[in-house]
Specification:
The protein is an alpha+beta fold. The chain has 2 domains: 107 residues, Nucleic acid-binding proteins (OB fold (Dihydrolipoamide Acetyltransferase, E2P)); 180 residues, Hypothetical protein af1432, CATH 1.10.3210. 43% of the residues lie in helices and 16% in strands. The protein has 13 helices and 9 strands. The strands form 3 sheets. A 5-stranded antiparallel sheet has the order 3-2-1-4-7. Strand 8 and strand 9 form a beta hairpin. The longest helix is centred in the last third of the chain and has 24 residues. It is globular, with a radius of gyration of 22 Å.
């Protein structure tokens, strides 16, 4: 590998203007890797590479020199790469020319992992302390005990789990951040909707995605676990709610409504909901979940934006690009 090229972050690579063909070097994590076969039967890989500043996709064919190294590294592998800048349909998609997996000793270099792992912008310790206050504020004793019991079981994993593999809050502590943002929105909006039971809505928000603590696994790259694939976080979260609701002697009607919030919070069956929201609290939680998921995409895109373009790349979750240029201050 060449020692002459400076290491560039993903944000720096995306900020380059008219850079097709320019050589580069980076240290990146394999975020996602899928093995496929072309129509002629030849194998190829599609992969997402990234660091804490962003990610990009590229394709590797089996006749390339780096194919075996990348395939052997797998998801979560850390690679030192060299290549040339290229684009596909307007998105960064470099040609990789040289790849080497980092050794355990190299992974221990000061600051390396911190540069690779994207984390929530708010300190996790502060988010977790605020989270405890939201639990304590639930006035109904058995409902509060139900929520407390769930987080006594999954809390340590919940603190660092991402909220998604790719779509929103897809970074360390992302699930905690997403849930706190929803709880803040819930507290602000409840006075507008007296039909919604405040304790039930807040409990539903705090536990709605707890199944993701079982659905996802991995430290440097997130992927779905066996249970995540076979059952999904909605069913896994329902199981947690039922288990601890019964253990806390929560009355049957509240338990049914709490379970329904978990089962319906995804909004649409095509998005993963088991049923449509059919109680005031379930509709309320589902809408807040959708709001924060989309605004989470906006916030992350703005954090990763550069000064070279007024718009982001197309965001699948929003079905559009995003205007990232700040609003001109009034003079």
């Amino acid at each position: 590998m060449s020692d002459e090229l400076p290491l560039l972050s993903v944000r720096e690579l995306k900020a380059l203007v008219d850079a097709s063909g320019r050589p580069f070097a980076s240290v990146l994590v394999v975020k996602k890797l899928t093995a496929k076969n072309a129509s002629n039967g030849n194998p190829f890989l599609t992969l997402d590479l990234g660091d804490r500043t962003g990610s990009f996709g590229c394709t590797l064919f089996s006749d390339g020199a780096v194919f075996d190294t990348v395939k052997a590294a797998g998801e979560g592998g850390v690679l030192r790469v060299e290549g040339r800048i290229d684009y596909y349909q307007g998105r960064l998609s470099p040609k990789l020319l040289k790849v080497a997996s980092l050794s355990e000793e190299e992974l221990g270099a000061p600051g390396l992992i911190d540069n690779l792992v994207e984390v929530a912008p708010e300190p996790a310790s502060e988010l977790w302390a605020e989270f405890q206050h939201f639990i304590d504020a639930i006035k109904h004793d058995e409902l509060r005990m139900t929520v407390r019991g769930i987080f006594e079981e999954v809390g340590e994993v919940f603190k660092w789990t991402p909220a998604a593999v790719a779509m929103h809050h897809a970074y360390r502590h992302g699930l905690l951040e997403h849930t706190i943002h929803m709880a803040r929105a819930c507290k602000a909006l409840l006075p507008l909707y007296p039909e919604v039971d405040a304790d039930l809505a807040m409990a539903g928000i705090l536990i709605h995605d707890t199944g993701k603590t079982v659905e996802y696994e991995g430290s440097l790259a997130t992927k779905r676990s066996r249970k995540g694939i076979l059952q999904g976080h909605v069913v896994l979260g329902y199981q947690l709610a039922r288990k601890h609701g019964i253990k806390s002697r929560l009355d049957a009607e509240r338990l049914e409504r709490l379970e329904h919030i978990v089962l319906s919070h995804q909004g649409e069956p095509e998005w993963g909901a088991a049923v449509y929201a059919a109680t005031p609290e379930a509709v309320f939680v589902s809408m807040i979940d959708n709001l924060d998921a989309k605004m989470g995409m906006v916030q992350r895109t703005l954090r990763q934006a550069n000064d070279t373009s007024d718009f982001s790349e197309r965001l699948p979750g929003l079905s559009t690009v995003l205007l990232t240029k700040p609003l001109t201050p009034k003079t």
